Each structure stands twice: as C-alpha cells, then as structure tokens.
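Two proteins, back to back. First:
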Amino acid sequence: MKANEVNIRNKRASFEYHLEETFIAGIQLSGTEIKSIRNGKASILEAYCIFSRGEVWIRNMHVTEYENGSFYNHKPRADRKLLLNKKEINRIERFLKTKGNTLIPLRLFISDKGWAKIEIACAQGKKLHDKRQDLKEKDDKREMDRAMKR
C-alpha cells in the first residue's frame, strides 16, 4: 500500500452533525503509530476533539499496535496532540464556547510529503427530525437515479 493511498474516513459524521468549518491539522505521533497508520490500521469513528490548556487534542482515536513494535509499542487509544496554528486554535476555542458545538474528525490521511494529517470540522449535533429529512432526501435521490437509468 502506497503512503498516499491511506484515507481513513468517519462516514457517520455528516449524518450525525451539521458541519460548519473544516481545518486540516497535523498529528503528533510516535514511530510505531505512524507505521500503523501507513498500514491503514487506524479508526476515527468514535473519536472526538477537545480543547485543553490552549491546545487541541484528539481522544479515542484507535491506532492498532504495530506488529513489529516489541516493547516500543504505543497505547492504542492514547490522547494525541493536534498541530494547528494560533489563529485556528483561537477560532476553534471561540466556536466551542457555544453550547452544543463540538469538534469531530472527518478523515485521516497521509500528505504528499508523508506527514499524517487529520481533517477536523466544527460541528453541531443534528436533531432526530434533521436525520429523518436527510434519509428522505437520500432515498428520493436514489429513486430519481433509478428512474433516469431506465
């Protein structure tokens, strides 16, 4: 698997949240963590981001232990620091002060230079009726595509 082919997505994010603004951040990783990510052995489905002491951290991101790591291996669900510039951190901090707002990861990928990057989004949780409306629109679109195909 080539390094640029790694593209781990959070498919439920757009269904569960109204996405408002996205950022691309670097991740502070150890050696065995980046090797596992390059092998595609990571998951961001249950992950979320927090703001703590002027820094943004990602929690609950699962990176499988590297099989050849021996005693140098990492913890699979450790908190990892996100690397953003000060302007972006201040924007995120202002956004998170409002109740009901959250910061969620959308996708994890390897950049052209070989760095692990994560795309995060400022989001607001959807209500049940919003989710139903999205499902209805998706079904209508599918029906229209079927009709056009015939």
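And the second protein:
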Amino acid sequence: MKHSIHIRSALPEDSALIAENNKKMAWETEEKSLNIDTAHKGALAGINKSHRCQFYLAEVAGETVGQAMIAYEWSDWRNGEFWWIHSVYVRPEFRNQGIFSALFSHIEALAKSRPEVCGLRLYVENDNLQAQAVYNKLGLEDARYKIFEKEFF
C-alpha cells in the first residue's frame, strides 16, 4: 500500500518515542537490551545538540512510523564529512512500504546540498541480509571495513 510519507526533523518531545524505537531495534537486530532511561537521555541530548547528530522521523497521516539518525565523521583523507546513518527503525507494519527509502532519500538530498559532505555511511549486522538488500537497492555498497569497538559502560 502506497502512503504519503512526510519526513521531518525530530523535536525534544520526540525523544521518548525515539528511545523506545531504539530499544526495539536493538533487541530485534542484536538481541541487545537497552536501558530505556539512558536511551531517552541519549536521544534528547542528540536532539538538543545538533553538532552531535540529527534525527529524522517519517510520518504517515501524522503518525510516526520510522526514524533515522545521522552522526558526523570528519575524513582527513577527503577533506570532507561523512554522514553516518544510525538508529534506523521502521515499525513492522510499515516495512516494505518505502519508509526507509523516503528517509534515505531525504538524508541523501540534504547531504548532496552541502559541499562539506563527501558521502554517506552506515553499518549493519552481518546476518541482517534483508537490510543489506535494501541498502544495496538504494545504491550503498559494502565498504569492506569491519568495525571494532570497546565499550566503556
């Protein structure tokens, strides 16, 4: 079913919904349980400090059905900024209906309109083949990097 999708920047009052979506996404994709209070504080801090990140929400008939966040990485190799797409979530009943494609198109258009942005990146779980297929369809390619991390909490 084709919907009219509206994309907008998140507001502070959206932080609880973003946190709840992030909690659902973390469990669904990694079986990781997020602390909802920490996730809420993190979403609110990101919304209130746009130099850290920017959240975008997809709405259908005034109802939030999806989200994505961009975070920024400076590339000295390119003298430009990569926008990393994070916190992607689409409500299950709205999947495969163009919600993420609309979010991605919005973010891509914004990125292309800013000369300092040299590209878009995202990461995906190795086993999340469905998401990888969507990303490939949108023109994203495997960057041939593995991500290593050390968490401090």
